[in-house]
Write a structure and sequence with these properties.
This protein is an alpha/beta fold. Helix content is 40%, strand content 20%. The protein has a single domain, classed as Rossmann fold (3-Layer(aba) Sandwich). A nine-stranded mixed sheet has the order 1-2-4-3-5-6-7-8-9, with helices on both faces.
């Protein structure tokens, strides 16, 4: 066999390994494996469909609220499950449904896909009504958990951020929704929201950031509570990028300090709000407020990176 042919053959052998390393997200998986919290997979069934969901319990002696975590466009990755564990560590039961359940090769879920491209294509193609029905089933299951105190929250990231906002227009028993750099629902749907919406946005994310001013006005017109914060200098996907220990390259390197700062501040805000809302009365939670805060950063503006941009730093992960 010619040397050039040998090289091509070797590259073909390495392709599955490269795909595996993209999916593995070793740092997030390692963090998760060190967690002392109880974790389990629960098959949530509805309408002839099964939504495999990752459930994590906090180590506390009292009943706790349930937080539904909606994954990024990358599916239920190691990072999404690790993020769920971090929220559980703060004292909350977290359910992270794999919304790709049954949509993968051979009827599998997120872990059945062999590349980032195939995963993002599958997530992008999910039917919005099916996603809402899946989330309804997850929320209904949350209501049956004996350790739940009855309060129900939803949070989502990237694609999941948009779905968490949309779910709030549909689900009437949510205590609050936490939207991380996701697009808003159509203005006509906002009138159906009964819970406050808290937004977390990146300064270097024009695609999503451009929607915030209009959403503020639309939520005001609908007399709904919407409190967005934009973290200046951070890029789309900063909750993941901000804790990824892999040395970033390209445009991501310049944004790394701002991403970490945004991630730390946003997580602190999330857990503070969860604590406040867990003890607040329904009337105080629902009070309209649509002020927008810009968290300043000393970092210089850089190229906008989207969470599903193939050039984004995803070393060892999806």
């Amino acid at each position: 066999m010619r040397p050039s042919a040998l090289k091509i053959f070797a590259l073909l052998l390495l392709l599955p390994l490269a795909s595996t390393s993209l999916r593995a997200q070793d740092w997030a998986k390692a963090n998760l494996e060190k967690s002392p919290r109880h974790r389990e997979w629960v098959p949530i069934k509805h309408d002839g469909r099964t939504v495999n969901s990752y459930v994590i319990y906090p180590e506390i002696k009292t009943k706790a609220p349930v937080v539904i975590l909606i994954h990024e466009i990358f599916g239920l990755s190691d990072w999404a499950r690790e993020m769920a564990d971090e929220i559980a560590a703060a004292g909350y039961i977290v359910i992270a449904p794999d919304l790709l359940s049954g949509a993968g090769p051979n009827g599998g879920g997120s872990d059945a896909f062999t590349s980032m491209e195939s995963t993002t294509k599958a997530v992008s193609g999910l039917n919005a009504d099916t996603v809402n029905t899946d989330l309804d089933a997850v929320a209904d299951y949350a209501r049956t958990i004996p350790a739940s105190n009855g309060k129900l929250f939803v949070t989502g990231y990237c694609w999941g951020g948009g779905k968490s906002f949309l779910f709030a227009t549909h689900r009437k028993d949510l205590t609050a929704a936490f939207v991380f750099y996701g697009p808003p629902p159509p203005d006509a749907e906002l009138k159906n929201i009964t819970a406050p919406i808290y937004g977390f946005y990146a300064g270097n994310d024009a695609r999503i950031g451009a929607t915030v001013p209009g959403t503020i006005e639309a939520m005001k017109a609908a007399t709904k509570k919407y409190e967005p914060i934009t973290y200046d200098g951070a890029g789309h996907g900063f909750m993941r990028a901000g804790e990824d220990p892999t040395p970033p390259t390209g445009p991501n390197a310049a944004m790394a300090p701002a991403n970490k700062k945004a991630r730390d501040e946003a997580f602190a805000r999330l857990t503070t709000l969860l604590k406040q809302l867990n003890t607040a009365s329904k009337s105080s939670i629902a009070a309209p407020n649509s002020s927008h805060v810009l968290k300043a950063s000393t970092s210089k503006p850089t190229q906008t990176i989207e969470c599903h941009d193939p050039n984004m730093q995803m070393s060892g992960s999806m």
